[in-house]
Amino acid sequence: MNKITHLFATALFLLLSFTACKTTKPTTEPSTQENVVKDTIVSAEKPEVKEEIPGEDNPVSIKEKINPPLNIEEFRAAWIATVANINWPSKSGLSTYQQQQEALKLLDFLKSHNFNAVIFQVRPQADALYQSELEPWSYFLTGEQGKAPDPYYDPLDFWIKEAHKRGLELHVWLNPYRAHHTTGGKVTSTSIIRKKPELAVELANGMWWLDPAQKETQDHSAAVVMDIVNRYDIDGVHFDDYFYPYDSYNNGKDFPDEKTFMAYQNADGKLSKADWRRDHVNKFIKRIYEEIKAEKPFVKFGLSPFGIWRPGYPESVSGYDQYDKLYADAKLWLNEGWIDYFTPQLYWQINQYAQSFPELLGWWESENTKNRHLWPGINVGLGGDEKNVDETINQIMITRGMLPESKGTVHWSIGPLVKHENLARALVEGPYRKKALVPPSPWLDDSAPEVPEFSFKVENDRLLMNWEVSDPKDISRYVIWFKYEQGNWDYKILDGNVTSFSLQNVVGEKKKMMERIGITAVDRLGNQSDFKEIILKK
């Protein structure tokens, strides 16, 4: 059985399993520090005792092992679109206070529903939702291109700080070539269309596009990316599917870059126009990846291309040809490892034969030769009825089953999640009922942090824990592990600035005592320290 067949068979088995029962209601209640988790996971065999230390009236023995008792890694993100005020702000020209309150509501939603990342659009049309000397303030923010918020604040800085407070990574989402959107208001003198007219071309639908083949276009867009990387404490940079524009934007006519291509031919260029266009996009993607890594290796670079590479790949798939129409060779970028995470927009349903979600996911995984993160984008905007809720849950579970080494899903977009209460509830009561860590990226850094120095005592029937590490600035999270008598392992994910925590020492009507505890430290790239388990002797 080849890899794609095996992956599809796995997906089909999972689909049948999950659709045979209700997915919107969990079989157990979400665990808290007072409840015993009900997961049927058996902890691994423990190595022999290494040392013994006394607790307060509680002798303990310490055992060591490398891996913690559970795999709790999964990327859970949502796109927040600012173009056309799709998600934020709800309309242009809101006051600073209104913008910030809307932002906090969205971030609070993600935190309370156990997401761990947000993909926030900061450059929808060669503009900026942050303080920039390279591009003007966005129309979608203030209602006038080039106008700063009043009272002044930096939205990106605000989003980053508030996201990090809530344990969320923040990835900046940029459109590298779009210069003006049809909903983007009046083109002002601050626009690149006016400042560098030789770079921009107008399309039939009223959009403007920067010519990707011009060196100055590439230099400018790269400078915008690196300006953000250098000045802001971001966790990732993200591009979507807009490279050369969709042909429908120009009424089916070819992209108007005749002058640029003619100059290339006159300089003895040998590539066809299509290969020449793809070559410029390929070089730009590789350049962005390399420049980010040279400056801040921990900043991840992600791409969310159109979900189909070419019709016929895999065989049963038909649809739009991004390779031929957008001049985006997304398969090459994945094959070469020019990204840290790859998020194809698989916005189709599981049983949609010509664009089947699991079949496309399996094909992309077969092309993931560098073992980068493959976190598909899914469409949660199909409505809030039971059928569409089940579709969302099943796609998440299929992704987990097919990609167990690095689970993850990106939701398009946050709007339907907030709008449809039953969908949001199904997530937090189902696959997202517990928090998760962002999976590590070992090709960037596989050096785990040190094991925290740990102490505890029992006080008023609670277990009080304290810990420290020698270099706390490198720690982004801690995980408290605990286990009650006759129960299974449970955990709490805490912020990296927390150095103490308490748990109830006895729970339930049967007075189950705390039996085992431990702690691991997690660095910014998701590397988790060795697990030191403390067995509480009776």
From TrEMBL:
Q: Which residues form the Glycosyl hydrolase-like domain?
A: 74-373
Spell out where the chain crosses the membrane. none
Q: Span of the secretion signal?
A: 1-22
Q: Which InterPro entries match?
A: Divisome_Glycosyl_Hydrolase (IPR052177), GH (IPR017853), GHL10 (IPR003790)
Keyword list (alphabetical) reads: Lipoprotein, Signal
Q: Give yes or no: UniProt keyword Membrane.
A: no
Q: Which Pfam families match?
A: GHL10 (PF02638)
PROSITE patterns (alphabetical):
PROKAR_LIPOPROTEIN
Taxonomically, the superkingdom here is Bacteria
Name of the protein this chain belongs to: Uncharacterized lipoprotein YddW, UPF0748 family
Organism expressing this protein natively: Christiangramia echinicola
